[in-house]
Amino acid sequence: MTARIAVLSDVHGNALALEAVRKAIRKEKPDAILVAGDHALNGPDPVGAIAVLREMETEGAIIVQGNTDIAVADADYGAAFPWMAEGVPDPLRIAAEWAHNALDDEALSWLRRLPAERRLRIGETLVLVTHASPGSQTAGFDKDLDAGTTLERMSRTDARIICCGHTHLPEVRDFGWKQIVNDGSAGYVFDGDPTASWALVTLDDETVTAEIRRAEFDVLAVANAVSARSLPGDVYRAATIRTGKLVR
Prior knowledge:
By secondary structure, this protein is of the alpha/beta class. It has a single domain (2-243), classed as Metallo-dependent phosphatases (Purple Acid Phosphatase, chain A, domain 2), CATH 3.60.21.10. It is 36% helix and 23% strand. It is built from nine helices and ten strands. It has helices spanning 15-28, 46-58, 67-74, 77-80, 90-102, 105-113, 147-154, 219-229, 234-243, and strands at 2-8, 32-36, 62-64, 117-122, 125-130, 161-164, 171-174, 179-182, 196-204, 207-215. The strands form two sheets. The chain has a five-stranded mixed β-sheet. β9 and β10 form a beta hairpin. The longest helix has 14 residues, at 15-28. The chain is globular.
């Protein structure tokens, strides 16, 4: 059987970029849409982003929770950012509080109820969608991760295809027996291309192929909206959106 899956993640409150990705996905008419977390933090429009995502969910999209969604919904910074052992910087905490206050109780409840991961079986192929890696919302498949750790994290699931985000760096890694599809970010990408990235996975019987796609959006409008918010760190967030590279 043949099936196609669209994968996106890390919208980060960038509703304009999300709409661009959604438009591109609609043209492809995939059999399933997977959304791998981090929906609200950093961007100028968490309300709009979550409204679009909830609409996509009613249309059948499978959506999971990311680590920053925990920060926004419940201010559990230890769970959201466990690598920050000395405490979360004020600009990050203030941005999470701003997003929390922008969202109503219904949207916050929606963020809280999202699962950490979901599975989809297409024929004999098991597909996992998770934010960072199997069993973790915070330990991702970083490009500089050593091979042993990568293998250990891959082995936490029987899924042949692992769909994830978290790193904001789009890439596809084909190991033969498993494939990691990291779509990058549909709103806050770090690879130097200031567009929104997503992935299209095609299953044709036993053959799996995946490719990264890009969707253009009004980068300057979003960057200016972030700057106008004037939160601590917004000058860096705006520069990140404008350049497609992490600025801090």
